[in-house]
Design brief:
heterodimer, A: mainly alpha, Cytochrome C Oxidase, Chain A, 68% helix, B: 277 residues, alpha+beta, oxidoreductase (chain B)
């Protein structure tokens, strides 16, 4: 009846996951009860869960990423503590638990923190920057988000029902094959990534289409803000790379479920095939994450320097170069597999070539600051912190791209330090910069600067105190994923790294405090103009938060930095005083399709993991039926009457005129 | 296990390339970091002495320089990578004094088996080698992937079931080193560290003779016991029965090692005839 599922799946003998799971469960229940008692359920359903508004979906993506960041961060703390104390002892985590933690940490941080964070920001901002009213496929957008959330749900479920993979975040066979990992851990891993992978793919298709097809008047490709360019590049990579991941995991699942032999030791399976395939996805994935971060920094550096981005065309070229070359370097993840000197050297050099456009980007940001008038608001602090940190990560990255150096550093703590250097210093700093920068746009009030700066400094210093010791440990020969060790020389560095982790955690706490304090002081921090940073691109041309239709009129773009030009024009000619003629606006209707579809996908995923076949069929039919019902819809749009558009837009214009006339007076 | 304290020519060459590459890059990276901090500080909004140039948004000369700097660095490093990859290919010979020692390494769950086919002995978790001689490794795995790595001798290499990888090393100084597996392989992975005893070439034959007197014999049967999942705290040594044992393992005549014994129902593989073995 319930497949492999029975009471032994609940880890009653392991207090840590049980208590953690219990606390989360109580928290979720408390929130649910609060929502129901306070009568917010209807608001939540109509305004958020079924919303197809790209801004709302973007916010939900970021919320999901933030919650999962706390989960992945807890895993990180547990690992650092374990390695600090497990010298000549077993520490406090047995191997079967420790191995789950590092596997979950990697999986969560990449798929359920970094990905939703950048996809959330792209969702929120790109249509606004392009001057359009929504993404290309609004309902699909909602489906994508809810499928991603389903994957996250399954990963967290593994905490209390069964186990998570104990194989590392890429589940290399043959260790991940049934003979060596007979438990449900790898199945949790694979199915949650299959489901969320579909979500990511549709998000990618959606954003590519949006950038290619939905631009406002005059917004030709070479007038798009840099963030739109990096979004395009990143989503092209998603569309090209995620199917590889899906296919690879499908093959692994066929091995595990139906006795196939793609990657098994016996019957002609080939583990090297898995290595190649997973990294053919895995390396572009790195750029899927970091390219949007580059876009965010381009916006931030330009805005806070009070200058247009230096060398815009060069930046576009660099972005697209990275997009293409990133597909040609995957083999550098396994130079030590004995591929031979020609292959190693070619892939090593190809990997280094990526450093060229990346270096160009750094210099162009540098020259954007040159001759600027730099305001050090929190987003700009993250940007400068990023530039310094990312260069160091780039240095160590090029170092491990030199095959003979990699022969010493592969899989070492040096490598761990390197990719955290670029993922934290690049992607996470970028996500935080974007969060600070666009928060006022999403919610209509700014974030508290004092707590924001504290968060930056603690995170920045905490990062170095945590990861510089790991570089050193790597140079001392320490490999990754050690549950315990007997080498005295490694110990002090592990202790320093644990202290660094504590400092990093303070940074996270400051970030939470910032949110709490800002929400409490939101009236004082209110942004009435829609343009709190003296911005340059179109998202600042509408109110904060923007109306559901974003823009009453499609803006007419005449150059790069479209909104900056409008502001200049308005100051010079005192335009905008003529009364525009408003029209009705058609917007997509909310739809529960995404949520319902994901609900059935969750049931199906859970049933597949536990081999509850009747439930698999039920979930499958449910998900398909949801799709059919949606496909048969008659009315998927509603009309906002011109009078309502006018009322909303006039209030916005009034504030904006005051701003312009004030600026003009100065 | 310090990578910068090499004990053999391969490690010395690896770490020279490592250090040289870092310095080549530092020559660019340090001035760049300095420039970032300097520009950020000087052009701060409150500095009235800094000249505001909002129209300085393109300069062909600057663009040429900023593309050229990383490109030149990469050309230089690319040369290092190309030459280094060829000279330090794991299979490249590493000439030494005396006759080379053939060693066949097998990663087991979770221990290292070192077979000396010419000496007809085998050891677990201890690798004893003569100083100065070329060491020819052939490597494979009994089950999952591992990576064979002695940090102070250099160049690591994967071990995979059904495949043989090759690696040549040399240890120049007598002494005790440590080796490890550098690829996660399951619950006993941290206990896959092994001792490396580098002894004088004169003492090596004595050690071989002493080991050959071992009571324990390594043959197909005892190998199958050894490859069961488990940790080996001791340092057993064997007489080698059949010098072709490694080939039997690498060609899968001896089937891959079994996985874990199943304890709980939750971990039980489902029925359905999946396991073809």
């Amino acid at each position: 009846m319930l497949g492999k599922l029975d009471w032994s799946a609940i880890p009653f003998d392991q207090p840590i996951p049980l208590i953690a799971g219990g606390v989360v469960l109580v928290a979720i229940l408390a929130v649910l009860i609060w929502v129901v008692v306070k009568g917010h359920l209807s608001y939540l359903w109509h305004e958020w869960i079924t919303s197809v508004d790209h801004k709302r979906i973007g916010v939900m993506y970021i919320l999901l990423a933030s919650v999962m960041l706390l989960r992945g961060g807890s895993d990180a703390i547990m690992m650092r503590v374990q390695q600090a104390i497990a010298y000549q002892s077993q520490g406090y985590l047995p191997p079967e638990h420790y191995n789950q933690i590092f596997s979950a940490h990697g999986t969560i941080m990449i798929f359920f923190v970094a990905m939703p964070f950048v996809i959330g920001l792209m969702n929120l901002v790109v249509p606004l920057q392009l001057g359009v009213r929504d993404v290309a496929f609004p309902t699909l957008n909602s489906v994508g988000f809810w499928l991603t959330a389903t994957g996250a749900l399954l990963v967290n479920l593994s905490l209390v029902i069964g186990e998570f993979a104990r194989t590392g975040w890429l589940a290399f066979p043959p260790l991940s094959e049934l003979s060596y990992s007979p438990g449900v851990g790898v199945d949790y891993y694979a199915w949650s990534l299959q489901i969320s992978g579909v979500g990511t793919l549709v998000a990618g298709i959606n954003l590519v289409t949006t950038v290619l097809k939905l631009r406002t008047k005059g917004m030709n490709y070479l007038r798009m803000p840099m963030f739109c360019w990096t979004t395009l590049a990143s989503n092209l990579l998603i569309v090209a790379a995620f199917p590889i991941l899906t296919a690879t995991l499908a093959m692994l699942l066929l091995d595990r479920y139906l006795g196939f032999h793609f990657f098994t030791n016996e019957a002609g399976g080939n583990v090297m095939m898995f290595m190649n395939l997973i990294w053919a996805w895995g390396h572009p994935e790195v750029y899927i994450l970091v390219l949007p971060a580059f876009g965010i920094f381009s916006e931030v550096v330009s805005t806070f320097s009070g200058k247009a981005l230096f060398g815009y065309r060069s930046m576009v070229l660099a972005t697209m170069a990275i997009c293409v070359i990133s597909f040609m370097v995957w083999l550098h993840h396994f130079f030590t597999m004995g591929a031979g000197p020609d292959v190693n050297a070619i892939f090593g050099i190809a990997s280094m070539i990526i450093a060229v456009p990346t270096g160009v980007k750094i210099y162009n940001w540098l020259f954007t600051m040159y001759g600027g008038r730099i305001r050090f608001a929190t987003p700009m602090l993250w940007a400068v912190g990023f530039m310094v940190t990312f260069i160091i990560g780039g240095l160590t990255g090029v170092l491990v791209a030199v095959p003979p150096a990699d022969f010493m550093l592969h899989n070492s703590m040096f490598l761990v330090a390197h990719f955290h250097n670029v993922i934290i210093g690049g992607v996470l700093f970028g996500a935080f910069a974007g969060f600070e920068y666009w928060f006022p746009k999403a919610f209509g009030f700014r974030l508290d600067e004092r707590w924001g700066k504290r968060a930056f400094w603690f995170t920045f210093l905490g990062f170095y105190i945590t990861f510089v010791p790991l570089y050193v440990a790597g140079m001392l020969g320490m490999t990754r994923r050690l549950q315990h060790y007997d080498v005295a020389a490694w110990r002090p560095w592990m202790i320093v790294a644990a202290i660094g982790m504590a400092v990093l955690s303070i940074g996270v706490i400051c970030q939470i405090m910032q949110l709490v304090v800002s929400i409490r002081n939101r009236e004082a921090l209110r942004d009435r103009t829609g343009d709190p940073w003296d911005g340059r691109s179109l998202e600042w041309a509408t109110s904060s938060p923007p109306p559901v239709f974003n823009f009453a009129f499609h803006p007419d773009v005449r150059g790069e930095d479209a909104y900056w030009d409008m502001k200049i024009a308005a100051q010079q000619q005192s335009l905008e005083h003529e009364v525009p003629e408003y029209h009705d606006i058609e917007m997509p209707r909310n739809s529960p399709t995404g949520f319902v579809c994901a609900f059935f996908a969750a049931i199906m995923g859970f049933a597949l993991i536990w081999h509850i076949w009747w439930m698999v069929i039920l979930g499958g039919i449910g998900a398909f039926a949801t799709f059919v019902v949606f496909a048969w819809r008659d009315h998927d749009e509603y009309v906002i009457p011109a009078a309502e558009v006018a009322a909303i837009d006039r209030a916005n214009l009034e504030e904006r005129r005051n701003l312009v006339s004030m600026a003009g007076a100065i | 296990m310090n990578l910068l304290d090499p004990q053999g020519p391969v490690a010395a060459a690896n770490s020279t390339i490592l250090v040289d590459s870092v310095f080549i890059m530092l020559a660019i990276v340090v001035p760049t970091i300095f420039a970032i901090l300097a520009f950020a500080f000087w052009f701060r909004a409150s500095n009235t002495k800094a000249r505001f140039q909002p129209d300085f948004v393109y300069s062909g000369r600057v663009e040429m320089v900023v593309w050229a700097i990383p490109a030149l660095t990469v050309i230089l490093l690319g040369g290092v990578a190309w030459i280094g990859s060829h000279q330090l290919d794991p299979r490249a010979p590493v000439p030494g004094t005396g006759s080379p020692v053939r060693i066949q390494a097998v990663s087991l769950d979770w221990k290292w088996l070192f077979i000396y086919p010419d000496q007809r002995i085998a050891t677990v978790n201890t690798l004893t080698v003569p100083a100065g001689a070329e060491l020819n490794f052939q490597l494979t795995s009994s089950s999952v992937m591992n990576v064979f790595f002695i940090p102070q001798l250099g160049s690591m290499i994967y071990t995979m079931n059904g495949m043989v990888t090759r690696l040549n090393l040399r240890a120049d100084n007598e002494g005790k080193l440590q080796g490890l597996s550098a690829h996660f392989s399951g619950d006993g992975f941290p206990d896959m560290m092994f001792d490396v005893n580098v002894i004088s070439p004169l003492a090596f034959p004595d050690w071989v003779a002493g080991t050959a007197k071992s009571d324990a014999v390594l043959n197909e049967d005892s190998y199958k016991k050894l490859m069961q999942q488990g940790i080996e705290k001791g340092r057993p040594t064997y007489r080698l029965d059949d010098p072709r044992l490694f080939d039997l393992i690498a060609t899968q005549h001896i089937p891959p090692g079994p996985g874990p014994e199943l304890l709980s129902d939750a971990g039980r593989p489902h029925s359905g005839g999946v396991d073809a073995r």
